[in-house]
Amino acid sequence: MLKKAISILLAALAAALFPCAARAQGTAPSVSARSAVVIGAADGRVLYEKNSHEKLPIASTTKIMTALLTLEAAARGDETVLITPEMVRVEGSSMGLKAGDKLTLTALAEGMLSVSGNDAANSAAIAVGGSIQKFAALMNQKAAQLGLSDTHYVTPSGLDDEEHYSSAGDLAKLTAAALEDPEFARIVAQPKIKVRFSDPDRTVTYTNHNKLLSMYDGCTGVKTGFTKKSGRCLVSAAERNGVQLVAVTLSDPNDWEDHERLLDYGFSRLTRYQADDSGFHLSLPVVGGAERSVLVGSAGTAALLPADEVKDLRRTVELPQFVYAPVTKGQVLGLVRYSNSDGTAATTKLTAGAAVPRQADHRNMIKKLWDRIRQLLSV
Fold this sequence. Notes:
Elements: E1 6-11, H1 14-17, E2 35-40, E3 46-50, H2 63-76, E4 80-82, E5 102-104, H3 105-114, H4 118-129, H5 132-145, H6 168-178, H7 182-188, E6 192-198, E7 201-207, H8 212-215, E8 219-227, E9 231-240, E10 243-250, H9 255-269, E11 270-275, E12 281-287, E13 293-298, E14 301-306, E15 314-319, E16 323-324, E17 332-340, E18 343-352, H10 365-378
Helix pairs in contact: 2-3, 2-4, 3-4, 3-7, 4-5
């Protein structure tokens, strides 16, 4: 009962809640891809999809998973890998590894994500998993952990196999998770990358195959792919004004232009709104404190919302009727909740503006009890 919340519901227009207005929602693009999707990376919200759950060959976009597992292993200890003949016995694109070379797991991830080195993917798989087959099992285990229900891996490089497939939707979900790894995000964002070999001691500069890094404003990655069976595959990511998107196309003869259209559409649908509660101030009673009340305030926060949902937002201030001393400065005492039909869209914390220590108490027990009753009745 003492913690019963005060709820103040205010229906408001977007302009009243947020200082920036929603951008006009664009027309859904027409793309030549067999399968496509655009999601908000922060929450996986699907902004556009076309056959996004169809299981298809994915070529070298497979290396998103391979690199993620490689970098997770490197984070536990970035061991130096001695390249063996077995590791480089693979066809297709290459970073030019030779038996006897030595380089770290991170360097192998750099090679597979920049120039799509199948030799790098094979080498990392054997170094981390012990064999290609055991590493594929790790890939499928990670896919299950991430909820990738349309995905099954056989190779670390993405060479064609009937049992090796994924979907645009799963690739988008995987990529959003991979971008949370700082090393992965660093590597895929670089148009050119210098990779260090420890033996023989040399540094090689590789040019990223992802042309969107120079074509599209705000592009932050991610990975190209192609085989005759899969056609052109592309996973991209871009960030503008704090909004990060992931786009995927599979079997797409016009992937560069399609991704520009898909990302433009995604940014027109999803905008970062700043919920400004910096002007909120309230005096909250303090029981047993050296001061009778404490000033409560808030700072703004941000939420990612589709433009067409902003009009449904409600603002609720949630605070207890009073708090007990002691209170520390900055202590979270409540919150402002922004919600819509999908639930909570954003919250801002309400914190104490000053410290309130306990009141020095020299009263006898009867006096203490009587004063407490009077104070509670007056709240």
